[in-house]
Fold these 3 entries.
Entry 1:
Amino acid sequence: MSMLRRLLNRRREQALAEEFDEEIEFHLQQRIERNLRQGMDETAARAEARRHFGNVHLAREDMRQARVASWVDDFLSDVRYAVRVFARQPVLTGIAVLTLALGIGANAAIYSVLNAVLFRPLPFADADRAVLLNERLRSGGGMSPTIPEILDIRARSQSFDVVTFFDTRDAQIDGGSEPAHVQTARVDAAYLPLVGARPALGRLLTEADSAEGSPRVVLLSDGFWRRNFGAAPDIVGRTITVNGASHQIAGVLSPDSHMFLSGGQEMYVPYPLVPTYTQRTAEFANVRRVMTVGRLKRGVSFEAASADLASVAAGLIAEHPHLYKEFGDAGNFVIDVQPLREAIGESGQRPLFLLFGAVIVVLLIACVNAAQFLMSHAIEREPEVALRSALGAGRARLVRQFLSETLLLAVSAGALGLALALGLVALLRSGLPPMLMVGEVDLDLRVLGFVAALALGTTLVCGLVPSLRYSRPQLGPSLRLDTRGGTTRRSRARHVLVAIEVALSVVLLVQAVLLTRSLGALQRDQSGFSAESVMSMRIRGMAGGGPALGMLYQRYLESIGGLADIAHAAVSSSVLPGRPSTPFTLVGRSDTVAAQSRQSTSYQIVSADYFDVLGIPLRQGRTFAPTDTASAAPVAIVNEEMARLHWTGENPIGQRLVAGSGPREATMTVVGVVGNVRPPFQTGDVPQLYVSYLQQAEPSMFVLVRPRPDRPVMVDMIKRAIWSVEPRQAVFDIRALDEMLAQAFQGQRIMATIIGSFAALAFVMSIAGIFAVISYLTSRRLKEIALRRAIGAQAPDVLRLLAGHTLLWTLIGLAAGAGVATLASGMLSATVRGLLPLDLATVAYTSGAYLIVVAAATVIPALQGLRVDPASMLRAE
């Protein structure tokens, strides 16, 4: 009979029972009539029939087993019994359920993020064939393709249906109470259809929109349309001013449209396919800043596409050797593909897996707690198991009872863990950067399946060993206390679990302490400048570029400097110097090519007052003068470290160097030396080079303002000062420099907070588990303690008996945890920028503090056992 039919028969058990009785009576009556025909009297015939049929009750039960899913009743009976068993020890049960729920909930929440970022398919057609095209050097280093290279790949490759590209830009629009800044993407016409973008109003961009001389058009995101234009249904065809030029609104994207490889874009304009970008000899043709995406033809593998692109790369090098000579030999230049799904999650992959590893450790600690809990239950129930075995219960029946209890624990912990996961997912969703928000982070069917598997798997693993081991009643005599002061086999198992729990906790605690120390050290290591009271804001110059852009900035600074409350104002291409990445050559030096290749410096475009705004001291020479314009000889200012490295024993003033790349490369004369600046994440002094904003033009600039002492920075006054020069100029990203510096450490701070939270959770769980188990075992040995004290044992002897081995195994766990923590810190340093090396002091202090708390958690229950009066305890016996 099918299982479904047997389950349905449970609804008609009374009718089935009557049918069973009728069938049994029918067979008995048939046997009686046979016996009567053979000459037996009625009494003998009935007796023989019942003797031949056997046990009627057993037959009835066998028929019920065959036709009804009676295991449901057995299971429910086991569950009811498990509830009564757990209710006898509510504290231990509560700790086990809560710790498992915390481990399951934390894992489910982090897995939901992993699912959204790395595993869930991208929400557009043929997403499995979408790839990112990269260029790289086999010797190391990656880069984006240039527009001419992309056009050549389109024409020559046989592996792609589509090859398209985009980049991101700042833009500003007129309208409203003041000019507004808008994050914008310049897109090739094929990109938006490839990623499934659809117009809610109007149309998408077309190839004709990118052609030279085409009317300027713009596409709006749904959010920008609703926020800035009030969701006006007649928006298509309107004209807005973008970066000083009129654009017609061609359409509005649907709300589910997504750029995937960038975040926060609110407007889309056509990428101009004009000779400035497409001809290899043009000024900007070799600029590498676009993202290139393709869609493979059906049946084309990633390996085949990479081989196809290798052929294209070889052809490019053969046709244009002068463009690739800096890359070395021809085989060093490679074009390859990466699945788009992988590329999107790549930036967040390592931190997410690190967090997932941390919550796995928390779950393992929860499993150890649950295992200790179930083992304690199993030990206590040895007499019960022996009695049930003596009454006929087989080992399979006893194991089933144990597993039913474990299943009850799993369901309780899983349900509570799911509720905790919902809250954690809401927190994670609000804190994720836009780059990771490819899809909604939620508890979908995959995550719910993960929760169910995790709850069942962990609790079954925790309960399987005790159920198999302690369901053999013959083990009872072998598990009696060893009166020589050693440990029994069961106590050794418990102590091993304690050591595992301690080791796992220490691993997380050491990483949390290391992250916190590193964050503090990074913040303390900032030096060479003063951020107090400095206000930063961004602009994107409205002039066409070149000297005109520098003159525009000069007029802005003159207008701001005329405000009574402003002490100093400056413009800069970045708020603080960056990492050394710009190569330079010293004029007149006979340095070898190898030495020259190692020379690099940070490169920053600033105005003269930049050093006064940030309090950077002038050590030698002068700062920039108003006469240092584009028509004058190029000049530069270097920091003390650059002067020390390259002009030791010489006067750096008047020295010449060649720095910059592309159009910015120039031969400059050093006119000043300033103090070293250590920005965030820079742990030592490095060469720093400053050039004048009047000689080097940069569209995107920061305006830095320092007010006079005890005067606030009036942002509205600064905006009006800028608008008095150029009414269309947007001023945005207005923040105090102190706030910006704090924001720089946000990633490290978030990682330290999350790892620290998990470490604190692991610490509390492990201590609570140890305390609960020691308290429970102490309560079971009160009579033994009373007997030992009655025959002369002193308090230290009892404490050593109860806590000695636990503390010894705690030390073993600390040693193992310290070793694993050393390995884990190496993986952490590959993920977290600026992490300090793990030192002995961090491990020693963390382990020592943990040992003190464990000692307290172990000794306190033992001291409570010593308070029991031996005479009264033995009298009760």
Note: Residues 3-69 form one domain.
Entry 2:
Amino acid sequence: MGRHSLPDQYGAGGSAPRPRARRRTAAVATVLVLTVAAGTAATVQSGLLSFGSSCQDDPVRLKLAASPDLAPALTTAATRARDDDLTSDGRCVVVEVTARDAYKVTNSLLAGEKPDMQVWVPDSDLWVQRLTADSGAAELSQVGNVASTPVGMAMVPTAAKSLGWPRKTYSWLELAGAAMRDDSLRLGAVDPAHSAAGLLALTRLSSGVAQSEDGDTQAAAMMKALSQRTSDTDGQVLETLPRDSSGSEQDNPKRNQALVLTEQAAFTYNSAAGHGGGLDLFYPEDGSPRLDYPYTLVDQAGPTTDQSRAAIRFMSYLRQPEQRRLLARHGFRASDDEVSDALVKMAGGSGPQPYAEPAVEPAARDTLQETLGMWTITVQSARITTVVDASSSMSEQVPRTDRSRMDITKASLLRALATFTPDDEVGLWKFSTKLDGDKDYRVLLPTRRLGDQVGDGTQRDRLSTAFGDLAPLPNGATGLYDTTLAAYRAATSSYAKGKFNALVVLTDGVNQDPGSISRGDLISQLEKLTDPKRPVPLILIAVGPDADRAEAERIARPTGGSGQEVSDPAQIQSVILKAIVASGTRGESQD
């Protein structure tokens, strides 16, 4: 994942388009070079190609979708550009700005919907990275970054003063801990599935908790507690604050005294609140992640060369001093080298809070995906049946280790089990060929709550033992198709409303049962069993060099699930969490 804050990233072409799964031809690169680097760039940027009002007769029109917090500033800038007769190659540039939540744009593009804009400015590079990681999503090219804003923790003044603001500084974990310990200091946040600020903050919190004893369990408990006060969008979370500054609502259990919030959101809130009704802002001493507002060309929208050049021209216009001041008046940082004390003061910051420190390095994409996956299964609660290949090939040694595929698979499943709460439901099947009479599979533990008492222990205890007892069967082949159909039929028939339902199948090979149904029949049967109102995505994980990722994807896709591939069984935990996030995203896009 790219950086979230770079000192020189704001100019047009200030950062090259980042690595992605697919790249356009040299056309985009040519546009960038011609517009920014070539000799004509100085002419374009100086506006010497403007021919007065006549350029309005045949303007280049751009549709730009922007994060709702940034959209008002870009709308003003677009109006100014038109009034100034901003031109690109002698034609006026007319930009239509629409405010759109980044998660909604991401979901629609992941669902394969045709883009309706040529330029997209989400609040974070996270959304662009999520799309470029999906081979079927729209093609994107990042040109630069419009602005930035750090993420901190804002509090009503009485709460902030009780923690020693502004003299005392805290880490993310200490701030969250103070809120969790004190019922009167209620902490609200935005759903990390919908908010980059929420996900970046949650990842910081989770990394801190993970260092403690029994870290996974503690992280799940923290997420569960935080989820009780989570809002759907960044705008909605501000509505959970007390409505006035009189203190009459301080004891209202529905109102929050602290929020995970960006500096810009706190600035806007305080600007509207007036004297005595604002927020104080803590900048965590272990670093504030930042939103970076990447200016992104949506290649799949089919922009013409003129539109691409005009888009670069508008990006250059945004970096002019007057537009930088416009962004600052809206509470954004237009440069990380120049942090305005006036902006920080209006946002509720004050020294010695470390508001001028460089942005913390963002977490790796896999770490962010794991955090989001843990959040999904922790908050929503899950009902997951796990089906594990026990064919003889699972006994083969994993390269560069002294352990078999099955050994590492079991260890990875045990780590994944630790991320589930007592309310989650998990079951276990194993399969090979003719494992139970003519059946290729055997149900080891029916799917039930991990906290349920089963015999002398809980379901979690029994699963831990069952995972540890898994062993490859000598001469066992891979009865994949019949097993997958039977397990999916069981998962859909026992659907639990209000939970994230899924079937996870792990196999290191292709179907080897000559007496089973065909792949075509399997897919046809899965399609018939799939009900969008009762979704049960199939997550089919191909483990090792002999498994077929393409086949896994073809089988899983009709259910709303996905086919995944891991070369090392140790990656299974992170892949399961990644697949859960992807399945949840597809489900939202269908809502």
Note: The radius of gyration is 26 Å.
Entry 3:
Amino acid sequence: MFQILVQVFRRYALEHLHLRKPGFAILDERGNGIGYVEWIAVVGNRLRVEGWCDAERLALVAPGSRVMVIPSLNRPDVQAARGGNANLGFVLDAPYSAQQTLLSVETGSLRYMQPLSIFDRADLRRGARSLVWPFLRDMIGVVPHAAVWVMRRDPAAKARIKAALGFGDRRPVASMNVELFRDPDKPVAVPVGLTDTRITIVLPVYNAFDLLAEVLDRVERHTDLPWRIIVIEDRSSDDRVRPFLRDWAAKVEERLPGQVILIENEYNLGFIQSVNTALVAASRFGDHVILLNSDAFVPKNWASRLVRPILAHDNVATVTPMSNDAEIFSVPVICTRTPLAAGEADLIDDIALTFEPDAELAVTPTGVGFCMAMNKRYLAMVPQLDTGFGRGYGEEVDWCQKVRLKGGRHLGLPGLFVEHRGGTSFGSAEKLKLVLANNAVISRRYPTYDAEVQEFIRHDPLATPRLALAIAWAAHRQPGGVAMPVYLAHSMGGGADEYLKGRIADDIREGGSAVVLRIGTGYRWQIELHCATGKVRGVTQDAGLMARLLAPIVRRRVVYSCGVGDSDPVTLPDHLLALAEAPGSTLEVLFHDYFPVSPSYTLLNDQGVYLGLPDLTVPDAVHRNRRPDGRSVSLADWQAAWGRLIIAADEVVCFSRDSAEKVAAVWPAAGAILVRPHGMLHAVPHVTPPQGHPRPVIGVLGNIGHQKGVAVLAEMSRLLARSRDADLVVIGNIDPAFPLTPPAVVHGNYQLRDIPDLVARYGISCWLIPSIWPETFSYATHEVLATGLPVWCFDLGAQAEAVRTAMRCGAPGGVIALHEGRAPTETLTDVILSEKEDA
């Protein structure tokens, strides 16, 4: 047990270790500063160097290793400080090495080196020791899941163990509110006095002539409360603006006397002074004020929705709606601007109208002034914006912080979506300078503000409505005639997940988006929307909420990728069939493993060996499933449930001939079973066999658990420690229950581009694929074959299929026979080190 804890801690340290130190100025050969290394960090087992540099190329150079990058990341802060090109940022990332590492700078015909002051082994040991107590704390939370794993080998329990220890993606995911959507048959309660509440709209105008007609028309048509508007024309440089506003105000005055107040600044005063002038005028009326930009387009019935929280809840200072460009209120992705096509905003707002009015109102660090309701009570306390912010940007944050100190709260309103075509009043260069300078002022005045914003982003209390509105946007944005993909996938990573990333990238590249229903996260459903601007997600146990969120997607391409790790997997086929019932939808089933064939998705029996397809009459416990209510599912019932999905599918896709034959044997009535081998996820270069090592070195690529052959490696390392016929190195991680005997090495996390350097570092002379199940496709096998070194595997599944195909083309290596499903560990090294053969 102690050995297992040690192995788990080593993996924990690799995942969580993060050492960081400041860098240094990058000098050219004359000593002139041309850049800066801002941070040097060790993250897990990787070295990361970040900064900016005005050079053609930069590289990290260590013995046997060179990683190069062209500085190209956008750094507006550097441009603002020194002028010139903004695309000077870089990130260099390479496997960590304790050996001396140099930063190579190439500019013109010159190349020169600067040594990096990196962390030594003692630094890493100190960093690891600092993680002992967090590790022990997290291990307490693992105990219940570990008990389930030991008793039932439940993949969902294994996923929860990884999540509890922070292995993999550690970003929190918000639990979604099942009560977001209102009951259409239930009347909506209206706060007392709402329909009679008068509002004053403050609309500062500078240029943006092409938008004004629609902005003002929408205010007239869609404002559903008694209103007046104060328009401040700030001496626009576009001489069409002022005459247009005069004409518009005159026409409204004829119909509604006193409803429009047009203020014409003699000189350009800037946003803040213009708004302050209007706030002085508005104070005479004693109304709640709505600050509205001249590039904000309000939808129907917007005003009552925006003001409602002020009347319905205590101490509300501001209310800000959702938008396509409103920082923490942005849709689809938080803090990311997304331009909208004509009509999209109103379609998104139609979904916002279906929300329960008081559901998911989020307390936020600030409001955003593009469309912000301001409570007259707090305007009386702080009647003006601070003119110290110059022409604008940051002034509404300052006002919001001042009223927070007086007890005011700021709310985000999910039930209203307002389009914002930002950036039309100031040029981007001018805006950048203003934002940088004014953000610094905010940070000095309110030291906790930035951290509060980051915490809001991290936990996102608006996750449910943001995802609902994002899916509505994506469904409308989907290219014409193309069904939107809805993937069901596991959360365990690996080759299937890498394949899925490729599919999603293709969907986005073709102009669309994709939804992933991810299981095995600790919640029944993690719902993700992937689009060109990023990803938004939330989790829920409620299948009804999942279905409601997906309702705007009228045509779906439902794709089963993998269901391993689900809490009630025998019901997954019916969920997928229900999703595919939408008119014009299609259904595709992918066989990344054999989960539809058996709960033992690798087809290993209760002895941990593969002896062929499971027999329905053999009472093998691993081929049965237990539902959450305790009921047992026989293998026959399991295959019948999944058979409904397989037979209904438009396509059943296998990635090797071997797996297609197995699927056809289980379900002879299945329709089109297609064989589509994967392509390489990333190119792996051919490597030169290393020279000068005292012994052959057998390399193993990938993360190795039970079905991947970790027990084989543990026994092999024990034998090699005694015989010293060869060395063994795993480029990846292993199951900590099977520690390798030294001098065998476990490298840990890696990237495919690292393989040539790692082959050279460890002296790898051949590869072993130790997997003991018939894989449906083996990325690792194809990756090691691409290196050109000899590759060996057991006579199973797609891995043997790939090695035999390579051998027919002259590749070195071989296929090793199993004996009653078990690996011949005693003779394995002899076979691998022999000449090429089909053993």
Note: Residues 132-152 form the longest helix (21 residues).
